[in-house]
DNA sequence: ATACATGCAAACGGTTTGCAGAATA
DNA sequence: TATTCTGCAAACCGTTTGCATGTAT
C-alpha cells in the first residue's frame, strides 16, 4: 500500500470522529481539507483500511456501514433517534460464548451484540 | 387489510421455507403458483405482514433482509459460507440483559445477538 | 361504490467498478 | 518506469414508490 494524502485524511477523520461515521460523513469531513476528493475514493480507502485491520467496518441492519478506529473487541449501542453509534464495554461474556459454542452442528466463528435505545443526548432534548 | 390471493401465497411461502428466505427467494417460490406476481407486490406484502406482527423481518449486516414465520423471541445463526439463516435458542439471557441495562446514560430498548459460523451442511461438504 | 390491492416500470440510496490520467516509489 | 493511486461517471443491487387498472367488500 502506497502513501496517499487522501488516505491519511480519511484515516484521521475516522479517528477524530467521536461517534463512528458513515462513509458519507467521512466524505463531508475530508472535503473540508481536500475539496476535490471523490466519494469513490473515500469508499475505496475505508474498505482498504478495514481489510488491513487498521479500521473496523461495522455493518448495521438497515443502515449505512460505520467505521471505527478502535479495532479491539467491543460492542456497540445504536441510538434509534439520532442514529449515532457508541462504543460499549460488556465485559466478560464467556458465559454467553460458552453457551453459543455448546450448540451442536454449527461451527461458531463470531458473534455480535447490537444494542438499540435512546442516547443521553437525545433523551435530554425530549 | 383486505384478502388477497397473492398475500396468502407469500405468507405460506415464508412459513414453509426451512431457512428464512429473502424477498427474492419468496418471489421465486410464489412465482411457481402465481407466475405474474411482481417483486414489488412481494416486498409490499412482506413488509405489511411484518408490520402486523405476523412475520419477523430480520435485517442482517451487509446482506438482504430475511423473513421468519416464528415471531417469538429467539436468535439466529448466519452461515458465512452459504448465507443461510438458522434459528437458535439461547435460553435465559437475563445476565446479559441486566448487564446491558446497567449501562448508564443510555435507555436500552432492545438487543440482538448475531452469531456467524459454518453450518453443518457446509461443514460436511468440505 | 369505495376502499384497498395489483403489475409495471421508474426512482432510490448506498456502494462498487471501469477507465484515463496523476502521483508515488 | 512500474505500480498504485485518483476523480469521474456509470453501473449495481436490494428495495421503495407512483400510477393506472383490477379485485374484495
From TrEMBL, chains A, B:
Gene3D superfamilies: 3.30.1490.190, Winged helix-like DNA-binding domain superfamily/Winged helix DNA-binding domain
Entry keywords, A to Z: DNA-binding, Metal-binding, Repressor, Transcription, Transcription regulation, Zinc
Any one Gene Ontology BP term: negative regulation of DNA-templated transcription
InterPro entries, alphabetized: FUR (IPR002481), Fur_C (IPR043135), WH-like_DNA-bd_sf (IPR036388), WH_DNA-bd_sf (IPR036390)
GO molecular function annotations of the record: DNA-binding transcription factor activity; transcription cis-regulatory region binding; zinc ion binding
Cofactor(s) required, per the database record: Zn(2+)
Signal peptide region: none
Binding positions (Zn(2+)): 79, 82, 119, 122
Cofactor: how bound: Binds 1 zinc ion per subunit.
Top-level taxon in the UniProt lineage: Bacteria
The family this protein is said to belong to: Belongs to the Fur family.
Protein name as it appears in the record: Transcriptional repressor
Organism: Anaerotruncus massiliensis (ex Liu et al. 2021)
Phylogenetic classification of the source organism: Bacteria, Bacillati, Bacillota, Clostridia, Eubacteriales
